[in-house]
Design a protein that fits this description.
Chains A, B: InterPro entries: DNA-bd_HTH_TetR-type_CS (IPR023772), Homeodomain-like_sf (IPR009057), HTH-type_Tx_Regulator (IPR050624), HTH_TetR (IPR001647), Tet_transcr_reg_TetR-rel_C_sf (IPR036271). Chains A, B: It comes from Erythrobacter aureus. Chains A, B: GO terms for molecular function: DNA binding. 2 copies of one chain form a homodimer. Chain A is mainly alpha-helical. Chain A has a domain of 134 residues: Tetracycline Repressor, domain 2 (Orthogonal Bundle), CATH 1.10.357.10. Chain A contains 9 helices and no strands. The longest helix of chain A has 25 residues.
Chain lengths: 204, 204
């Protein structure tokens, strides 16, 4: 898999650039045609590399699809990390991470279709994608609980609930965006307010 | 579509029973084989009805798939409604609705696979499924805001966030359930606490 060391991992800068081109081309090809209709020659053509070069990096269409899902998981994580800085409080981290995710998804709209198709094409990658992100969120919640910015006792259910919020806000406001929708900053602010204080009013 | 009046809507109790058998058999067939591998003859065989009978109800495999997605949306709604009663407060409604959804999904584990495959097979049904549920949740949130049990100003972002929580809790605790997981009542309780008061601790 891309990002993991195996005999196909590129060792030169040029190799890494070619791998990147192949993954980006694969994202477009899989998103536009779906896994079954997508072809390796379509990927290499749009990447502008020779067909034979493909096999320097991947054994099969399955292999590049798997690498792409893993690359997209990593991309989601990287987008969040780059937006965060150590001075932020735990709650701010969640707001900024959601906003970064919405922006990432907006620049990589194909991510929903590809991750969702993984459920059928490569169920293990599909599950790994959410397990990875869920674990990352759970770790942040625990850290926030330790610093007493969050309530004690947060764990897997809260992490998956939060992940679901973020995924569905992306579905609605990125993939199915409509004219007049609030912008990403406002969506992240509202989700964060919900996370901070809940929606219980005076009766609570 | 099942549930809508057209020339294929059964008018007798016996017709409705046959339709139900076909939809249940379709759920199993599509979940086990996927849309493309599934066949009308597989559906009628497992429903125990003649192949010709199928066409009294549906024009095609696409048509029964579409009807099935719509039937599952209705099933989710019905499960929630049956668990609710008018004496419940707005917050309790959300707790009970989530628990009912987890139980429904647990008895109809195929729902995730079928709804998710609709994204590829019948994108309009896929979107309609979530738009319908999102609108239902949004209405409940507005009602809760009116009765002042919820904060004012709740709308589409909060409804989709809540829908995402519920869908992902089902994914993790129904579809990917593990030994030692909390039970549905406890999951619904924790999600409801998060909804009521958020996760902000003393620093909030």
């Amino acid at each position: 898999m891309a990002g993991e060391l195996n005999d196909k991992t590129p060792r030169t800068e040029r190799g890494r650039r070619t791998l990147r081109k192949l993954l980006d081309a694969a994202a477009t090809e899989f998103a536009e045609r779906g896994f079954h209709e997508a072809s390796i020659s379509g990927i290499t053509r749009s990447a502008g590399v020779a067909l034979g070069t493909f096999y320097t990096y991947f054994d099969s269409k399955d292999a590049i699809f798997r690498a792409l899902v893993s690359d997209m998981s990593a991309g989601v994580g990287k987008a969040a990390r780059e937006a965060l800085d150590p001075s932020m409080g735990a709650l701010e981290v969640e707001r900024v991470a959601l906003r970064a995710f919405l922006e990432f998804a907006s620049e990589h709209k194909e991510i929903y279709r590809i991750i969702d198709e993984a459920e059928f094409v490569d169920p293990e990658s599909y599950r790994a994608h959410y397990e990875t992100i869920g674990a990352r969120i759970e770790e942040r919640l625990k850290k926030g609980a330790e610093s007493e910015e969050f309530l004690p006792g947060l764990g897997t259910p809260e992490a998956w609930a939060l992940m679901g919020m973020n995924v569905f806000l992306g579905l609605r406001y990125v993939i199915w965006a409509r004219e007049g929708d609030p912008d990403f900053q406002e969506i992240a602010r509202r989700a964060n307010a919900m996370l901070a204080n809940g929606i219980g009013g005076s009766a609570e």
